Structure prediction request, 195 residues.
Amino acid sequence: MKKIILTIALAAVAAVCANAQIGVNVGYTSKNFTNVMNNEAGLFAGANYNIELVNGICVAPGVEFAMLNYTKDENNYQKENYLAVPIMFNYGLQLADGFKLVPYLGPTISFGLSSVIKGGASAWGITVTTGDVDMYDGTDYNKLDILIGGGVALDVMDMIRAFVGYNQGLLNRNNDADGSVIKTSGVNFGVAYLF
Prediction:
């Protein structure tokens, strides 16, 4: 019985892998905060695994690392690093030979790895006059965010993908007792190589 279950499981994995595609991507990303002046921009890199579910409908779980910053001058900045796990559902529409339009939609779980503001900067109710302050140490700035987003991609020859998307944060990043709501939103665009 164990051999039968193992055989069925291996066959299911093989079937999924036969209809799957790995992609690696790089691009530009931004993060805007409601009620906060510091809008950040930077670069991201990541990978995903596009798995066909049924009739061309696919799911693409992935992982991305983003480095963002807001810089007023060399003595006044905020720098942040994030790790994100997008789970995007997509469907490919064949436009012509070698060209496919791929709209996508889904959630992203984002986790802040580091957030530092330098002297003169002000964020989340903290004004730094000297040195650097770790925003995740002793402040009310949440590391976790869940976003919903979508976008559109253009696949060329099933090898190169250009994409643009938008994400809207659902969680309040501010835990302060003042009750103010601070949510994130942002755009991203980039290119991917599909294996």
